Amino acid sequence: MVVGPFGYRISWAQLAFFGHRASGVGVLVFLFAHVVETATVALGPDVYNFTQGFYHNLPARLGEILLMAALVYHSLNGLRVIVMDFWPRTTVYYRPLVYGVVIATLAAMIPLGLIMITPYAPWGHV
Amino acid sequence: MAVGRTIWDTEDAAQERRRNPAGAPRLTPEGVRRERLWWYFMRISGLILVVMALGHMLIMHVLVQLSGHEVNFAFVSSRWGNPFWRIYDLVLLLLALVHGVNGTRIIIGDYVRNRTLRKALVALLAAITVVWLIAGMIVIIAFNPGNGPKVGPFS
Lengths: 126, 155
What we know:
The complex is a heterodimer of chains A (126) and B (155).
Chain A: E1 2-3, E2 9-10, H1 15-39, H2 45-52, H3 58-86, H4 94-117
Antiparallel strand pairs in A: 1-2
Helix pairs in contact in A: 1-3, 3-4
Chain B: H1 10-19, H2 29-66, H3 73-80, H4 83-111, H5 115-142
Helix pairs in contact in B: 2-4, 4-5
């Protein structure tokens, strides 16, 4: 149980709700920036290739991995919300489903993270 | 006798407090219908976005990496040379932006208690969204791919 800034005891599983909001807002903030960055494609190859250069460093790549994790979590947790909205009897399994979403996100991020970090990893410069 | 005029409003206020202890904004019937439509929109667009947004990320960050390409002007030219990917990106932009902004509107509604500030924030968010949406759609529709070489997966 967590007694945080909520003023009452909440279970770890209830943090899924805050995770959904945080990941959603995070992806939206990136989307607004992504529209601006992609819009430079209208200014020709030199400008666009320069803009894409902002992504070609380790901190940006770690940010992209975080973005992927946020999107995977938001997708899986969103599917759980839809399932529980339309089949209310599944709410009995609220905690197992939330922990399943978290575990599935972490499991999916192992191969995805390894592939995405490749250019900056020791095995990436073979 | 002041017929039709409320002199003693304490009973009504007490009733209102009992019905709505949190003092949440009361929705009109039209508001209820509108919010129900948004509720369905979030779930339907969410299901579509699970496929489209994750698909976009898998192509741009995983398949591009595995196939040894990089996202640059030639890559975009080749990709948007195919009308399928232009329509895909248009639909993805529209759904993701509206889904995300509506979610943010609901978060604002949960945390911003001041009615004037809440309305101002939502109006600002809506205005920014319209500008971004129109600009993004113009970029995708008006882009001239030229005669760049075919590169990248699914070009």
